[in-house]
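Quick one: S41 family peptidase from Mariniflexile ostreae, structure tokens please.
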Amino acid sequence: MQNLRKYLPLIIGVAMAMGIFIGSKLNFADASDRLFSKNSNKDKLNRLIDYINYEYVDDVNTDNIVDVTVNAILENLDPHSVYIPQADMGRVAENMKGDFVGIGVSFYTYKDTIAVIRAIENGPSDKAGIKGGDRIIMADNDSLLGSNLADEQVVEKLKGLIDTQVKLKIYRKGTPELLEFTVKRAHIPIKSVDAAYMLTDKLGYIKINRFAESSYREFKEGLRNLINLGATELVLDLRDNPGGFLTIAEQIVDEFLEDEKLILFTKNKRGNIEKSYATSKGDFEDGAIFVLINENSASASEIVAGALQDNDKGTIIGRRSYGKGLVQREMGLGDGSAVRLTVSRYYTPTGRSIQRSYQHGDNKDYFDDYFHRLESGELLDPDKIEVADSLKFTTPKGKVVYGGGGIIPDVFVPIDTSVQNETLSYLLRRGFIGFFVFEILERGRANYDGISKQAFIDDFIVDDRLVLEFQDFLNIRADSQVTFVAYHDVIKHYIKATLGDQLFGSGAFEEILNQSDIMIDEVIKLSEKTDF
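--- reply ---
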């Protein structure tokens, strides 16, 4: 003890010296030329953020600075390496997983109340007896009334842990008292297969909107149902499909290719190559396949189209696809956020990369490529598609295909300018048609009782009076004057499709729109005259 007391002043002195030394290293009053002088590039970023946090004249949310920094770094790599903030991870994960835990309703805020558009078929709310048009007034004694309630707040109250219960109070038109329902939360699918039905006696149709974890299971179920209905030919609609999981695309291609056929291969920066081959498990290897693509079909969609085209399997129909041949891998950053980083390129079986160039110009130019295609006339004339002889490849049966920017279809179908126009895009984007249809159903939902889905699709006619009502609706609700005289019949068709969706779901929207789809018409003609 005496020895300890003897050296105590020395120990205290050393500790104070170390504190002064460490404090000097944290002195953010250093001149800028000294601040970064002895640090690596990684240390620069950390020191700068700390410096701002401690010394900047105003309070700053340094989390936002980090987000901006990460985004700036990724923007210098390629257009598809992206940062996913913590706030967005839940939504992104749900979308790619293919389900979420909730009560199973689609809704929107209508006159300050939460209006049920439709209870998802066989979901918890559907089983409990909740119907389209019902208003959710309370959830577990929390009021859901009021114009200031954001959709995110509503979702937060209706979602929850699996098998937990929520008590709902419902107003139903024509019922004097509030109805009470106890709904047990369950896994609610986010459908990636929008529709699966027969176009003709032999031609089946499946539309996939993205490649999520659940997509192959949904696709397989739809395919088996169509085979049981007599399908010997299949339309796989990948229009506007932005892609998703590489492995899911491989599984779907495997349904059509024979054993040991090459599906694709990937190559990373070290030159390591991984090849993916078809197996013997496919259910449609002997059937004829038509794949529909357009300028918004990307990534995994292009894998499917490219694998089939390069193996001389089926027919690719539509317009040149998006041109994304990069593979991303997701890495968590420890705080709930993540980065999807490009780790390799993929190549179709003939060896072509379909990734279009991103070396010239900024990311805005890259993502605005659609407008370049529109201005060049490519969307109307296949001869306007730019190809390079240096990127020419040949399939086993001698068909010439090109790399360097998307999949060029075997059969070109121009864009339908009567359907794809700014007016219709605006109406769909703002949800006006859906809101209008909901109000029509509000006035007389009982008018549609007893009508089957197929009878509605085949026989229901939207009269001109309803279209005129929609114009009056827009005059009140739209921010600016909107007229659609030139697209009268198209609007009528979309009103019917939206009515079908809100009444029946289950692919009614796509089935109705496909009745006047020029690409579908082209497929049916090919099916009728081609002997496979």
